[in-house]
Each structure stands twice: as structure tokens, then as C-alpha cells.
Amino acid sequence: MRLRALSLALWLAVTPALAHHSATKASGAADSIAIANITHGQMLVLAKYRSDILRLVEAQTTPARELRRLQAFQNIQFSSCGWGLVPGTVSDEDSPFNECAHAYLAATRALLLNMQSSNGIGSDVSTLAGSIERDMLDQYASLVLCAHSDEAFNTGQIVQPAWGALPGHMPSLITFGAALATAGALLWLSKKLRRGSSIRSA
Predict the structure, then answer these.
(1) I need a surface site. Which of 27, 62, 95, 196 has the fewest CB within 10 A?
(2) What is the mean pLDDT of the chain?
(3) pLDDT for 61-85, tens place per residue?
(4) Residue 62 to residue 53: CA distance in whole angstroms
């Protein structure tokens, strides 16, 4: 919990401007890559396999330009969503972070589909895709919907957390309270260390 709070404190320190740029429903730039929507159930399954998918992306020896663009979008979107550290980001549709989680996990699936089309049957990518598909069928993932299940995305538009909804979501408030307390403690400690250093050098 302390590490999570520290990570969020650092994230808060470097992303204040992003809070003023919430997602719009624009189609993105003309050359952006469309990313299909995923249901709430599919998102829960994809979250389990995300690290496996990203490892396979890194293992591609001759990645196409589209794959790299999807990878870059996924990386930026994931960090913009607080690296999934806020409780309920993926599982709670009322979380201010749920929409941006849909975006980075939809991009994760797009990465898998892109690799699958170029690697063919029998590859590690195909094997992983089969495992994910079976898991989704077992969980009836396509039938588990939420408010963002019909939302498509594109690489020209980063989806920010719904900051306006933050005061109404208690788990997020508690997490950010802990992060701010950690940031305050770090600031106090830094000042104390600097003061001690000044006294010793005097």
C-alpha cells in the first residue's frame, strides 16, 4: 500500500496539467488507428493477460509500424490512467479511472490481434490468443457490460481519468488521500534533510 501511494504521489506531481484535458468523443487525427471497443467482462480477462501480451510485443523482431504505434498509445494511455494503481480502476465501472482503463486494455487487445494476423497459426501469439479466448468464453465476458462497453478508441486521442467524478468515488478518494499524505511526508522529510545539511555546513 505504501509503494502504491508513493507511485501515485509521484504521478500526481508530474500530471497536474493533464487534469484539464479530459477525453472528448472526437474521432482523432486522420491518420490515427481505430481501436474497437471491449466489454467490461473482456476488460477483466485482458487485464489478467496484459503483461503476457506486452512481452510478446517486445519479442517481435520486425514489428510493423502499426504495431509500434499501438504499443506507444497503450504505454501512454496506461501511464495516463495511473498505471492501474487506483483500486477499482478495472473492476468498478463507477471508478473515475474505468473509462481510461477500457482505453488501454482495448489497445492491448488490438496489439494481440495485430500480432496474431502477422504471426500465423502455431505461434506463441496464437497460443496466447487461444487461451484468452477460452477464458473469455468461460467467463461469458462478452455479455458483461458497463457504461463504457460500447466506446471505441483511437491512437489520436488519449483518454484521461474522469476527474470530475473523483469526489463521488470513495475508494479513489482514499487512495489519493494516502498519495497526498505520502507526498507531504516526502516534502517535509526533504526540507528537514536540507535544513540539517545547512546546519552542519555552517
Answers:
(1) 62
(2) 84
(3) 888 999 999 999 999 999 999 999 8
(4) 16
Cβ neighbourhood burial of 5 (10 Å; 0-12, 13-18, 19+) = buried
Q: Which residue has the cell 546546519?
A: 199
Helix (H, G, I), strand (E, B) or coil at 150: coil
Residue 30 carries which DSSP code?
A: T
- Measure the CA–CA gap between 53 and 69, rounded to whole angstroms: 15
Q: Are 126 and 116 in contact (CB under 8 A)?
A: yes
For residue 91 the three cell numbers come to 473492476
* Long-range contacts, stretch 57-65, CB < 8 angstroms, 24+ apart: 57/111, 57/115, 59/124, 60/115, 64/114, 64/118
Cβ atoms of residues 70 and 107 within 8 Å: yes
Return all residues near 3 (Cβ < 8 A) that are at least 6 apart: none
